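Example for tutorial group B:
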């Protein structure tokens, strides 16, 4: 009887749960509906990307440009340059929404959704669609600028030491000298080879003389959905974008020079200045995805923020945790894909108990830029941190008070403007200089170079972050591979032959040859004596008796007499088909709690012939990693997590056993 009662109750419970519809509408959207709003700008998110995911992932060149793919190699494995977020939004889902009468405004492949103005009468219908995951409002980010422009012609030239620098910077000398840009230009580093995206309110005076030599490779208006990023009768005016663009990349000697004047530029109009809430997050997200597909390296956004309390449709200071605002999530995703993202911290000034940041400056991978005066004192309007989860913001500072900019009233005049809107492009220009000097750096390495060499690096705080940036120190923060090296590697039977040539060596003590099997953990193989000081071409070689059939990586560390060193490029030797059984040493070793075990199989083997097990020092079996599975010829890798098996610290042995082959190796687990 008790058993029957349990079954009845269980079935009733199941029926009860099955009758409750899944709630897909967000609380804030529900609030908007309840208060009577009929037309609501809405996010509609999807469950998946459809049925052709694998086909699309195998054709990356159909989704992003070769330049984007090349940039991604810095942060992704070379055979996995795309992930699920890169795949386009499923067109069938979009068509189903359009059949309901929706007009799609923007699409986001990264967030897997679209935006559209939705009549509340359609919300229930959208919610019942099986491919819809959730529905929410598009948040709006109002901006406030401290000084739009001082409409005065700057005829007075700032005093610059005569003959010291390559260029005459005119009135922009103060803002550049504060962050040590002229010295970098003197080295011949002016942003060449770097592509910068400027996301702003449009660019109404590209005819200005400071843009005459600028290389603009793409432009799109995401507010009006056309290729014209100026005004010309569209919604929004582009004075602000004109000013920020001139700050980062303008060039007119004796008048104004931007830090990255030799870079290429992508221009995106994302802000509608005609409305009270001038930027919608979906415009910015669509723009950064578009810039990524073209191959952007650095993005600069000078959008401010004013926080409102619930129930207004804007993020608040409590949203600044790096994970709440969708615009922040997208910005962090951009960094994950290899883009250096810089954003103004905001113009909301000081608050004792709260932050005054604006999304996406709160992103953990986004470089938030605050403003200082020409004397290096924090500008009173510059927003402060920290984020809700306790991270220091802003990250860095640059001049934002009375910055020299191109005039928006004349093609030949110049004026000044203030706000973190102008410290951000200065900092973004320096980020471009760092990448121009060392293109192989990842976004996090660029951020670390800017922060670690700034004026407040030893004591970062919520007012100034790591401090005022230093362009010279930043470009030298990461060692640059020695130019002119010729480094080669080849296989001969079971040996690897390495050879290299160098010229113009300066006090070369020697070379440390390093090897890696994962391009992460490096081990020293040998030290080869150098030739001291030489301007002639020198040849070196080394034979590595490393019997591995998997991929293997090498690099050279040249060490000079004074202890300084530089690295060569990394060489990769692809895996080859193994001709014998092999059980490699686990790595890392010692480990805590995870390690990897590699083994090679020279022939196809049937079921029940491969076993990989772990034993303690008493010979007791403590883990079975592979048991009677079928393998084809090749090299394989298994992850072993000691915590999953409840193991204590100590020495363990792992065994690979096949028909006719058995091998043991020792590993050390250290908690």
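The residue assignment follows.
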């Amino acid at each position: 009887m008790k058993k029957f009662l349990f079954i009845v109750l269980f079935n009733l419970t199941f029926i009860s749960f099955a009758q409750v519809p899944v709630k897909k509408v967000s609380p804030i959207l529900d609030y908007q509906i309840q208060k009577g709003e009929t037309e609501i700008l809405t996010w509609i998110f999807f469950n998946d990307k459809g049925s052709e995911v694998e086909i699309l992932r195998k054709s990356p060149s159909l989704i992003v440009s070769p330049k984007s793919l090349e940039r991604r190699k810095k942060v992704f494995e070379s055979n996995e340059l795309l992930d699920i977020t890169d795949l386009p939004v499923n067109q069938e889902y979009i068509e189903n929404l359009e059949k309901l009468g929706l007009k799609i405004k923007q699409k986001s492949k990264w967030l897997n959704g679209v935006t559209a103005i939705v009549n509340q009468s359609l919300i229930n219908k959208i919610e019942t669609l099986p491919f819809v995951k959730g529905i929410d409002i598009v948040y709006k980010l109002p901006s406030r600028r401290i000084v739009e422009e001082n409409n005065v012609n700057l005829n007075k030239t700032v005093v610059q030491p005569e003959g010291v620098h390559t260029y005459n910077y005119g009135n922009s000398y103060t803002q550049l000298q504060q962050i040590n840009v002229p010295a970098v230009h003197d080295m011949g580093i002016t942003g060449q080879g770097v592509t910068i995206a400027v996301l702003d309110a449009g660019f109404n005076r590209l005819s200005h003389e400071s843009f005459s030599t600028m290389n603009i490779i793409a432009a799109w208006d995401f507010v009006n959905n056309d290729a014209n990023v100026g005004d010309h009768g569209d919604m929004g005016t582009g004075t602000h974008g004109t000013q920020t663009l001139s700050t980062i990349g303008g060039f007119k000697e004796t008048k104004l020079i931007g830090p990255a004047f030799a870079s290429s530029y992508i221009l995106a109009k994302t802000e509608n200045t005609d409305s009270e809430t001038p930027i919608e997050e979906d415009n910015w997200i669509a723009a950064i995805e578009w810039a990524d597909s073209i191959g952007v390296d650095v993005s600069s956004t000078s959008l401010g923020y004013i926080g409102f309390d619930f129930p207004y449709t804007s993020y608040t200071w409590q949203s600044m945790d790096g994970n709440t605002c969708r615009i922040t999530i997208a910005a962090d995703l951009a960094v994950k894909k290899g883009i250096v993202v810089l954003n103004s911290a905001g113009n909301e000034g000081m608050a004792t108990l709260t932050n005054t940041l604006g999304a996406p400056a709160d992103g953990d991978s986004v470089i938030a830029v605050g403003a200082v005066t020409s004397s290096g004192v924090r500008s009173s309007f510059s927003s402060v941190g920290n984020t809700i989860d306790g991270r220091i913001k802003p990250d860095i500072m640059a001049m934002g008070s009375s910055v020299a900019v191109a005039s928006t009233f004349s093609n030949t005049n110049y004026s000044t403007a203030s706000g973190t809107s102008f410290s951000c492009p200065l900092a973004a220009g320096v980020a471009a200089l760092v990448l121009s000097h060392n293109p192989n750096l990842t976004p996090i390495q660029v951020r670390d170079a800017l922060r670690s060499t700034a004026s407040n690096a030893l004591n970062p705080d919520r007012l100034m972050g790591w401090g005022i940036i230093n362009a010279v120190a930043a470009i030298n923060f990461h060692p640059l591979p020695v130019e002119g090296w010729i480094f080669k590697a080849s296989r001969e039977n079971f040996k690897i032959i390495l050879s290299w040539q160098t010229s113009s060596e300066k006090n070369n003590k020697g070379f440390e040859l390093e090897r890696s099997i994962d391009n992460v953990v490096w081990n020293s193989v040998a030290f080869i004596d150098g030739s001291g000081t030489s301007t002639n071409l020198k040849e070196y070689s080394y034979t590595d008796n490393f019997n591995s059939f998997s991929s293997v990586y090498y690099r050279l560390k040249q060490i000079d007499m004074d202890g300084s060193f530089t690295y060569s490029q990394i060489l990769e030797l692809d895996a080859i088909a193994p001709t014998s059984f092999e059980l490699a040493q686990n790595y890392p070793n010692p480990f805590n709690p995870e390690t990897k075990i590699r083994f090679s199989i020279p022939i196809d083997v049937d079921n029940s012939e491969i076993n990989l097990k772990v034993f303690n020092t008493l010979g007791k079996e403590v883990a079975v990693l592979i048991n009677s599975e079928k393998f084809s010829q090749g090299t394989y890798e298994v992850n072993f997590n000691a915590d999953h098996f409840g193991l204590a610290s100590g020495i363990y042995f792992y065994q690979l056993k096949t028909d006719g082959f058995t091998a043991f190796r020792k590993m050390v687990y250290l908690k």
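Residues 486-573 form a domain with the Immunoglobulin-like fold (CATH 2.60.40.10). Compare this with the pattern of hydrophobic and polar residues in the output above.
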